[in-house]
């Protein structure tokens, strides 16, 4: 909703590219700090497709397909008008100072990249994000997000990257995440997650990086990860409450590891000699 004088304009009711113009203006209206003067040229004297950070479609003139405003130290709230940019494929507002709630995304069915990392967003992750069924990258790391990780994230079948690290969620790692078989990078590190590492993660046979460090996870070393032997390169389990002995065959079962973080747990026994067989292991 955009307020111009005494007239309220609902972005969703206007046709074609005029919708996108007004939605961008409403987004700009919520910005309270723009230290680099990025929005000076966001005015009616120039076509909105020429505004810095805005990319429009070639096939559908005037329709915004990308909004990329990262690393600009912007502050304010992310206007709900973003949710009416229905042609949007990329939304990157990372490394700013946005606060408040996550913008509504349920109408952004073309969205493929969502990067709101390194802000000050304070919200739970809504189930409605699963309406964006084409999402490939979701990065909400380093915010102040709360609540449980929604099990329905498993409906995002096209995800290759999911980063929720350095927030304040509670609860367990949803076993349903094991259904996102396309995922290559999963970052849930430095949160408040409890419980054991679910066996279902062993179904993620395309996983290259798994970061679960800095939580309160318990149990033994997750042998389910041996199913990732062909893909797993980086494994972070540090700073948890994992215990018991490490599997003696860990090196043979995960031969493609390049980085392995197990520090600050309560493992016991010997360091497995099989780790010496992992020729590409550069950090342990």
Automatic annotation (TrEMBL):
GO CC list: plasma membrane
SUPFAM superfamilies, sorted: L domain-like (SSF52058)
Domain Leucine-rich repeat-containing N-terminal plant-type residues, every copy: 18-57
InterPro entries per UniProt: DNA_repair-toleration (IPR053211), Leu-rich_rpt (IPR001611), Leu-rich_rpt_typical-subtyp (IPR003591), LRR_dom_sf (IPR032675), LRR_N_plant-typ (IPR013210), LRR_R13L4/SHOC2-like (IPR055414)
Top-rank lineage group of the source organism: Eukaryota
Domain Disease resistance R13L4/SHOC-2-like LRR: 105-265
Keyword Manganese included in the entry's annotation: no
Keywords for the protein's UniProt record, in alphabetical order: Leucine-rich repeat, Membrane, Repeat, Signal, Transmembrane, Transmembrane helix
Name by which UniProt lists this protein: Leucine-rich repeat-containing N-terminal plant-type domain-containing protein
Organism: Aegilops tauschii subsp. strangulata
Lineage summary: Eukaryota, Viridiplantae, Streptophyta, Embryophyta, Tracheophyta
């Amino acid at each position: 909703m955009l307020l111009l004088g005494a007239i309220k304009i609902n972005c969703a009711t206007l046709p074609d590219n005029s919708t996108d113009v007004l939605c961008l203006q409403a987004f700009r209206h919520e910005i309270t700090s723009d230290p680099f003067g990025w929005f000076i040229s966001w005015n009616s004297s120039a076509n909105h497709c020429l505004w810095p950070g805005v990319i429009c479609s070639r096939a559908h003139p005037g329709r915004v397909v990308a909004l990329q405003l990262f690393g600009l130290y912007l502050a304010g709230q992310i206007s709900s008008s973003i949710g009416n940019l229905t042609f949007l494929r990329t939304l990157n507002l990372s490394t700013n100072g946005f606060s408040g709630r996550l913008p509504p995304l349920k109408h952004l069915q073309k969205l493929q990249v969502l990067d709101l990392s390194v802000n000050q967003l304070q919200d739970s992750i809504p189930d409605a994000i699963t309406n964006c069924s084409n999402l490939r990258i979701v990065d909400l790391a380093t915010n102040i997000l709360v609540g449980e990780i929604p099990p329905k994230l498993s409906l995002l079948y096209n995800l290759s990257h999911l980063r929720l690290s350095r927030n304040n969620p509670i609860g367990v790692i949803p076993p349903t995440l094991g259904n996102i078989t396309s995922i290559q990078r999963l970052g849930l590190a430095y949160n408040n997650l409890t419980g054991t590492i679910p066996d279902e993660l062993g179904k993620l046979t395309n996983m290259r990086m798994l970061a679960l460090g800095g939580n309160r996870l318990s149990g033994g070393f997750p042998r389910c990860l041996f199913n990732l032997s062909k893909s797993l390169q980086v494994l972070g389990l540090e700073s948890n409450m994992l215990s018991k002995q490490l599997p003696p065959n860990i090196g043979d079962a995960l031969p493609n590891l390049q980085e392995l973080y197990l520090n600050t747990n309560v493992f016991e026994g010997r360091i497995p000699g099989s780790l010496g067989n992992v020729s590409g292991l550069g950090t342990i």
